[in-house]
Amino acid sequence: MQQKQDIKGFTLLELLVVVVIVLIVSAMAYPNFSSWRTDREVRMAAEKVASMITGIITQTQRGSFPYVQFSVNITSGVTNKLFLTKGMSQKTLSNTKNAGNTVNCDIVNAGVWDNHKVHSAEAEVAVHTATSGSVCFSKDAGHYGLNGSFPSNNNINLSGRLTANYIIICDLLQMDYSVDPPVSRIGANGQCDISQLQKPAYLVEWTRFGGITLYKWSGDASNGWSIL
Questions:
Q1: With contact defined as beta carbons under 8 Å apart, do 217 and 203 qualify?
Q2: pTM, to two decimals
């Protein structure tokens, strides 16, 4: 015996209620998701930079290159930052020294670096300088050097000590939500404004002997930077 079943669908009002609830939940979740995504992108760029510097320094320890360079290349009006590592052969280094020339950390594409590009990466982020900068390493730290914007780095307090050997990476907007309406704290030339730094921001520190440490900005000047 077949029983009758009372089949009932959704009413238009019920569908509208469901849609409204979904929209409200989505609107509440979007700021958190957007913040998480931005932080993830900036952190990935910082981790890539730390990895590139570590990798090129390893090349000096292995004897692949006696002299290497990491640089951030900044082009006016371009949001993407190009990070590069380069290597100089022993022959070129010896010829440079034998000719009485100074081994320097110039940011050039030819005539100095035998391997123009060991590794490269682009990221849509801001850094703490408005112009390009580079840092160079050698196996015994005898040819350590800075060029471009890096020599003018201000000392930053990291774990109770001061250092000028760093690069800061932040998002392109640097929104300050502590004021109403929120405003961007990005520098006048599109760089991270250290005096008004906002989250997310990360810092990669190096030593002349090749030590690399990655830090995260707490968002509070009293707490400053914490090691990841």
A1: yes
A2: 0.84
